[in-house]
Design brief:
There is one protein chain. Helices cover about 45% and strands about 10% of the residues. It is mainly alpha-helical. Strands 1-2-3 form a 3-stranded parallel beta sheet, with helices on one face.
Length: about 450
Amino acid sequence: MSVVTRFAPSPTGMLHIGGVRTALYSWLYARRHGGRFILRIEDTDLERSTPEAVQVILEGMAWLGLDHDDGPYYQTKRFDRYKEVIAGMLVQGQAYHCYCSKEELDAMRAAQMARKEKPRYDGRCRNRTGAPPAGIQPVVRFKNPLDGEVIVEDRVHGAVRFANTELDDLIIARSDGTPTYNFCVVVDDMDMGVTHVIRGDDHLNNTPRQINMLRALGATPPVYAHASMILGPDGTKLSKRHGAVSVLAYEEQGYLPDALLNFLVRLGWSHGDQEVFTRAEMIEHFDIDRIGKSASAFNPEKLQWLNQQHMMRADVRDLATRLQTYLKRIGVEAPNDARLSAVVEAQRERSKTLVEMAKNSRFLFLPQVEMDPAAAAKHLTPEARAMLQEFHASLTDLTEWTKAQIHDALTAFATARGLALGKVAQPLRVAVSGSTVSPPIDQTLELLGRDATLARLAAIVA
């Protein structure tokens, strides 16, 4: 059997990390087994679905590199197919028209609650005969089995049993004729040949209804795996203050897509004690049977650590291309050349995100120093400026502008004056970078270049 998985977000809000983890698990399972991964946009909620949310889904999946083999399919473009299936179910007696008014349903539920019963539709229109009531546009309900049980053989939670007596007759088409979410999912999974459904455990209660409808339509239900939710660091439901924001916000914050995926795959899945995974390693090792039952906690510090690990392991040229984008966002035009790659090599062990790397590298590409007044007041004293004026002459005499030659010149200069290296290096760093933070000073000057270094020193000591 060829594996077919799907990611089916509803565009009623931004794509956040809970949805991305579901997409990732589905994508990995398909890729590991040489199967197909489908992207489906479940936009039947016409009032709440927005084009902006759809765009975030598409852009987010593209940024993450979670490529789909089929789709994107849009449920709103499949209404004719849903109506066709509903018509057949009505003919076969698997569904029926319900003419109950809102007032009648409210009264029914109120009476049930008064009797301390679970509020549910009681099937009063299930076997209705005679002429339909005038002036009421009916809904269509699925005839759920009246007895027996549905056993969901879930690959995460094991066998989960649902009594059919607890499942009322679900509305599958509204009074205006539009199909409902649970029904569209069933038809889509059937038509698209989905073999494995991996999704959040908030959908587990929908599963028995969907299985009953699939069986009524003569289809084999897929294998289900319901992953537990992601919690905030404080153990509460993940919210915006924890990181439940649009996935593209992580791109804006300077995270690498592979780092974010690595972080998410470990929220509920493990492979021994391994923490850092390449994309290829995730594909090789991922198995839905190893998804844990317990909820996982979102840890921002772990995400930052993983991002730095991936930056340290990334291809320098790829990282330089990404850094160029982030530099441009803060007003710096930097050519993607050998120098930019050297900047990446110097900064990636010192930066947790590309935003941080861009911010800390900005001074290397500016026409002149943007001075931190506090750093200048502390380190560029009259004595320090006089010292830098002398060192300017030493640098001018260098025959090669290399890290090694700069280091030798700096060491010789400090030794000749009986100074600790830091007493020269820190004023020099502030003079050329404008702050007290940069890579090692010899590397900083090499990256800055001879002309820019000498010009910045000359401006300080003038």
